[in-house]
Structures are given as C-alpha cells and as structure tokens.
Amino acid sequence: MERELDGLGDEELLARCRTTRSAEEIRLAISIIARRHHAPLIRYLESYVGEHQTAQDLAQEAFVRLYRHARRYQAEKAQVRTWLYRIATNLALNAIRDRRRKPALSLDRPLGEAEGASLGARLADRAAPEPSGAALRGELVERVRAAVAELAEPYRSALLLCDLEGLSYQEAAAALEVPIGTIRSRLFRARMQLQQRLAPLLERGAL
What we know:
The chain has helices at residues 2-6, 10-19, 23-49, 52-68, 80-99, 119-127, 134-149, 153-164, 169-176, 180-197, 199-203. The chain is an all-alpha fold. The longest helix is centred in the first third of the chain and has 27 residues, at 23-49.
C-alpha cells in the first residue's frame, strides 16, 4: 500500500483520506506528506520563531493536526502545502505570543545539509561568493538577520513564505488567509524596509 500511495500527489493522498475507512491508510498518507514537507517546514518555522527545537516541535504538531483533520480537507479551497503552512503559521504565532517576548530570529544558523542554507546565508552567498568577500559575507548575514527580525509580523510572514520558501502570491495568500493584493502589499513593504535597513551595504555594492 505504501508504494501505491507514494506515487500520488499531496492532494490525491488527502482525497484518499476522505474516502477510506482504513486508519492505516490515513497514517501512511500523512507520513508521506510529512516526509515531503518536513525539512522546508522546519526551515520556515525556525526562521519565524528563532529556535530550532521549537521549530521541530511546531512542525510535529502541524503534521499531527493535518492527520486529525485530514478528512476535512477540501482541495478546491487550498493546496495541501498552503494548508500546511497556514497551520504552521498559526502555531508559530501562538508560540511567539506564549513566550511574551520578541523572538530573536536565527536566520544565520545553518539547518544542516538536508535542510540547506538559511535565508541570511543564502543572500550572503549570492552577494559575496568569492573567498575575498568572507568579511563582507559575515556582515551581510548579520545585517539581514537583524533587518528581518525587526519586520512587523505581517511583513515578516509574507517575506519568509515568498522569498524563503518560494510560495507564489496565491499560495502565500491562502496560507495566511488574506487577499493576494494584501500579500503583494506586505511583500513590497517588507522588501522596501529591508532595502532601507541594508542601504549602507547597497551603497557599497555588496548587494
């Protein structure tokens, strides 16, 4: 059964969950979806809440909730990926509120080979790929990390979903449950604020 399910897309897997009477089939379907999205979801959550362990816990809870509500999934309303990021975003917001303090995003911390480089490191790699740019790379990582951490939550979530995770405007809008125009506006404002905060590096030609 697992081999058969593994050949299905995410939406097809949850469609099977809605019609099957087999709890084992639902468990296998969710485990396949979790395997596909686990690494990028942790990367997104860690960039959001600033703690790797918290991100792991939240990702686990997101997949648990996906399992619990699998039979309620409606493909016409959202793709599985956007539904999953909606769950994860809500969990992250709750975690931040519970901490009662502003999170310090760890955008410069590597997440391991499986997850790939973080947002700050990726931008820094693009800006200074030559060995001679090592000092500038370190400065850029710190500037990007600090600048993203200072963004207001609505702008930060739009930026992380679109620029870090590569979601389309439509997917990000579905994940955050806002109109596409709102995503465009938030992303524009986030990028403008980042540009202003990174102006000294821009003037030096680092970006």
